[in-house]
Design goal:
- The structure holds two protein chains of two kinds.
- Chain A is built from 14 helices and no strands.
- Chain A is mostly helical.
- Chain A has one domain: ABC transporter involved in vitamin B12 uptake, BtuC (Orthogonal Bundle), CATH 1.10.3470.
- In chain A, helix 1 packs antiparallel against helix 3 and helix 3 packs antiparallel against helix 11.
- The longest helix of chain A is centred in the first third of the chain and has 35 residues.
- By secondary structure, chain B is of the alpha/beta class.
- Chain B has one domain: 3-Layer(aba) Sandwich (Rossmann fold), CATH 3.40.50.
- Chain B contains ten helices and twelve strands.
- In chain B, the strands form three sheets. Chain B has a six-stranded mixed sheet with strand order 6-7-8-3-9-10, with helices on both faces.
- The radius of gyration of chain B is 20 Å and the shape is globular.
- The two termini of chain B are 33 Å apart.
- The chains are: A mainly alpha, B alpha/beta.
- At the A-B interface, helix 9 and helix 10 of A face helix 2, strand 6, helix 3 and helix 4 of B.
Chain lengths: 350, 278
């Protein structure tokens, strides 16, 4: 049959094609970011020599350049990519499951819980221990997720409204506790806390990067396996049931995956805002709402986006590092408003 | 063949003392066009949700093609039963084509993408509902009538044996409402699709349904051919409203008219004899 009508339907070939394209964008972004930084690493010089008269001298990097490139910049780029990918994937999951376009990875209060954990870690001096900040941050996130899921998701009569409200309330409660701890802590701690709250990608250890990567792999795989069910659930819970989805089970698996993705990313990087909200929207506008395509696209583009944002954060002002959350919010908010004004984007049509 | 059988079904929400449905027993043979009517709160929607396995009754059993509905997995059930809800809010920009293809979900494996057969079935469903020209449009950009037809196309793409519709023509104008009922009738006659509609539109239900079920406070008040169910006394008792009922001049089926207080005050028919009473 000379296939379909308008071919708006997503096929496996289309998923692979778009993913490959966005993967190339990601590679290019990462490579470009490797060149950027306050120290001149001789990498640019190397390329000039490849193209010039002394190709044999190309990449004769000094040992300290190698250190800067491969021990400082590369891990950080990798980590930025993983965090951006995790948050974007989680954002897609939460927006669809809660049927709320304003949902982001932090909507269930994970940010508040992990921030409280991190701040307790920082202000009690645990930060000097290995995992002294990420571990309490992760515990805080886990407790929050359990609380919110118990409030809104355990009973048969699941309501996304109840869960959203539970998330807001839990976040407010943790904010109060954060203020309490902050008002009791020293000035030196405050600076660290603020950096953590705004998101900071410079702190990750190699093991933490590896762990983030593994969790991303697992979380994304689970989500993609359920991508068609996510499509159906995003139409409404009853509609999904009528179309054969075992909604309760699927929803719980996906909420836990999204929460784990968020909790791990946040524990190692702080609360980087906006990525998980804006990337899913951008990809949905470009590629449509089918999650079989939306999930991999958001993962890849979210990674590229955060690499760019973090490169700006570490290079925009010489000899100074900005929190990456400041950059994402400064770039993200105006763009979002622009989309709203253009009217191509109508999140309140429900 | 019986496709749907309810036996002594009783249901109440949560801990409420009042049953929404009481001892409902009812059998739907294959290929029947059944209408469920009754006032607000009489239990119509609850009955539909029980027949779909969304709600489980505290008492009694629901059997689909002879199998207890609790024993049937959701994706298997979705190959037999399709449902067109009252309204379906659209949040995400799926296209019409994507929406109709979602009807194929219960027939596909977890990682399976839609194949040529699924495209062909979806295309057929869209042709039948007149939604093919809309294929590339976003659901969020459609009118109420267009959307409803797309949702019906999605239900047909499920290739169900039973199709439930909950107030599916409530917001539609006459033309679209008629088009949908005509389509259902054709599917019902040619494919032996069993159709169960819940509706407030008693006149339309009388015209299209083989049998009507009149619910009142969770009980089946009357069941049978439209001319036996839609009578002045039944309507007065169940709806607590005075109406006049005459015969449709073409079909001979009952046609109901409200009797406004200003007219019924006089307690006599406006033009005695003009409307043959049933």
């Amino acid at each position: 049959m000379d296939v379909f009508m308008v071919e708006s339907a997503v096929t496996l070939a289309k998923v692979i094609k778009v993913s490959l394209l966005l993967f190339l964008v990601l590679l290019a972004t990462a490579a470009a970011s490797l060149f950027c930084g306050p120290a001149d690493t001789g990498l640019l010089q190397g390329f000039r020599e490849i193209l010039g008269e002394r190709p044999e001298a190309a990449f004769a990097l000094k040992p300290e350049d190698v250190t800067i490139l491969f021990s400082l910049r590369l891990p950080r780029i990798l980590f930025a990519g993983l965090v951006g990918a995790s948050l974007s994937t989680a954002g897609v999951i939460f927006q669809a499951l809660l049927r709320n376009p304003l949902a982001d990875p932090y909507i269930l209060g994970i940010s508040g819980g992990s921030a409280l954990g991190a701040i307790i870690g920082i202000s009690t001096g645990m930060a000097v221990l290995p995992l002294g900040v990420p571990l309490p941050a992760f515990l805080g996130a886990a407790v929050t997720v359990i609380l919110v899921l118990a409030a809104g998701g355990s009973v048969k009569g699941f309501s996304s409204g109840t869960m959203l409200l539970a998330g807001v309330i839990v976040n407010a409660f943790f904010s109060a506790l954060i203020m309490l701890v902050l008002s009791l802590s020293s000035h030196a701690d405050l600076q660290k806390v603020i950096f953590w709250l705004m998101g900071n990608l410079s702190l990750a250890e190699p093991e933490e990067i590896l762990l983030t990567g593994l969790v991303l792999l697992a979380g994304f795989s689970i989500a993609w396996l359920h991508a068609r069910s996510i499509n159906l659930i995003s139409l409404g819970e009853e509609t999904a049931i009528h179309l054969g989805v075992a909604v309760e089970r699927t929803r719980m698996i996906l909420l836990l995956s999204g929460s784990l993705l968020t909790a791990v990313a946040v524990s190692f990087s702080g609360t980087v805002g906006f990525v998980g909200l804006i990337i899913p929207h951008m990809m949905r506008m470009l590629l449509g709402a089918d999650h079989r395509l939306l999930l991999p696209a958001s993962l890849l583009f979210g990674a590229s986006f955060l690499i760019v944002a973090d490169t700006l954060a570490r290079t925009a002002i010489p000899d100074m590092e900005l929190p990456v959350g400041v950059v994402t919010a400064l770039c993200g908010s105006p763009y979002f408003l622009y989309l709203l004004r253009k009217g191509r984007f109508r999140p309140w049509s429900f | 063949m019986v496709v749907l059988n309810l036996e002594n079904v009783s249901f109440r929400y949560g801990q409420e003392a009042e049953c929404v449905l009481r001892n409902i027993s009812c059998t739907v043979p294959r290929g029947e066009f059944l209408g469920v009517i009754g006032p607000n709160g009489s239990g119509k929607t609850t009955l539909l949700r029980i027949c779909n396995g969304i709600l489980s009754p505290q008492q009694g059993t629901v059997a689909v093609k002879g199998t207890d509905i609790r024993q049937i997995r959701r994706n298997v059930l979705a190959r037999t039963i399709a449902f067109v809800p009252q309204d379906s809010p659209d949040l995400f920009p799926f296209t019409v084509e994507e929406t109709v293809l979602m009807g194929r979900a219960p027939h596909l494996g977890k990682l399976q993408f839609e194949g040529e057969k699924d495209f062909a079935i979806a295309r057929q469903a869209m042709e039948a509902t007149g939604t093919l020209p809309l294929a590339g449009r976003h659901m969020t950009d459609l009118s109420g009538g267009e959307k409803k037809r797309v949702v019906i196309a999605r239900a047909l793409a499920q290739e169900p044996q039973i199709l439930f519709l909950d107030e599916s023509t409530a917001y539609l104008d006459m033309k679209h409402s008629k088009a949908i009922f005509d389509l259902l009738k054709i599917m019902n006659r040619t494919n032996h699709l069993t159709v169960v509609v819940v509706t407030h539109d008693i006149n339309t239900a009388s015209l299209y349904c083989d049998r009507l079920l009149l619910l009142s406070r969770g009980n089946i008040f009357a069941a049978g051919r439209p001319e036996d169910v839609v009578t002045e006394s039944n309507i007065r008792e169940v709806y607590e409203t005075r109406v006049t009922i005459e015969r449709n001049p073409i079909s001979g089926l009952p046609r109901i008219s409200l009797l406004p207080e200003s007219l019924s005050d006089s307690r006599k028919p406006v033009k005695a004899g003009a409307a043959p009473q049933l």
